[in-house]
Amino acid sequence: MPNLSPRRNCGDPGLATIATMAGNSFGQAFRVTTAGESHGPGYVVVIDGVPPGLALSEADLQPDLDRRRPGQSSITTQRKEADVPEILSGVFEGRTTGTSIAILIRNQDQRSRDYSPIKDKYRPGHADYTFDAKYGFRDYRGGGRSSARETSVRVAAGAVAKKLLAMRGVRIVGYVKQIGHFVANVPDPSAVTLEQVEASIVRCPDPDVAPKMIQFIEQMRSEQDSVGGISELVATGVPPGWGEPVFDKLKADLGKALFSLPAVLGVEYGAGFSVAAARGSQNNDLFTARDRDITTSTNRHGGMLGGISSGLPIVIRCAVKPTSSLPRPQSTVTRHGQPTTISTKGRHDPCLLPRFVPMGEAMVALTLADHYLRHTAQCGGESRESRVESQES
Length: 393
Fold this sequence. Notes:
Layout: E1 25-26, E2 31-36, E3 42-48, H1 58-68, E4 85-89, E5 91-92, E6 95-96, E7 101-106, H2 128-135, H3 151-166, E8 171-179, E9 182-183, H4 194-198, H5 210-222, E10 229-236, H6 250-259, E11 264-269, H7 280-283, E12 287-290, E13 293-296, E14 304-305, E15 308-309, E16 314-320, E17 330-333, E18 339-342, H8 353-379, H9 384-392
Antiparallel strand pairs: 1-2, 2-3, 3-7, 4-7, 5-6, 8-9, 8-10, 10-16, 11-16, 12-13, 14-15, 17-18
Helix pairs in contact: 1-3, 1-8, 3-8, 6-8
């Protein structure tokens, strides 16, 4: 029998181990597992739960990967990665087989030498210290497993989830809502189109504010600094009924999904934190009927009530911190506690928001695909009206 007593320091091989692995998987019915490091050979994702018969090829994955890839514009990192996906299994003659889908994305433009001079220094804002505290050993090249490059295969998996959801009429569009103190005017989040988002390299649908955001990001780069912001993510066409009432609330799983992305420090949906200053009479969305559909006259609840989708657009915002890697000198310590300074010479984004958008969309898609399959397994494909009528007959 294995010794299941917890170990307090993973760096000490003499202590007992726990017979479970770290959380590299997400989802239940639609489940993804990723592996890889920033400066290793590449990344792989295994997707379980995709129904058989879905038309799928690498060409379906490439558009979102192109939106996420580095080196795509003057305001992103200049690391050059083609991010061409290779489907290794689960697809035959252009259709999914129902078995595990494996997708590989190879790394091509690593520059590990940029990290050799700082391998023993803790980078402010990064996971260097916490990885050492947990494991006692880490891959210092580009952050290793904690690198945002891991999101490449999440975006690939998210493209599969988007295709599945599109068959149900669900659409997911994200965009940059704010960078620094520049805020986009978006009167109706559910009306924003992908074409409007992609019209600007900063992925802001407001044509008046987008140029100001770009100029500000360029200013941050020239000052050897970085800036954060907010991305808004909108899912339309989600029917009422997806999600579970207690621990697996749809909002809880979406929160976990988005918080699992690097640099996300805050997530809110609907009216969000503004409800702290509101009265109930102001905040409640009043129910009404349109034809045979039950809906609400407003959407301060952000498309979810009691952790279950209401049928209105799901509107979520993520606060993304400024890039931690800076070329300007900063105070820090070595892994032995010696005071020193550090400046990061690698290639980094002065603002993460433009490339964050497809990452956020992917995690929303993965969560919704999972709850779609779970709901179908539990409740079938019947509408609310059909179930109500059957109960009354």
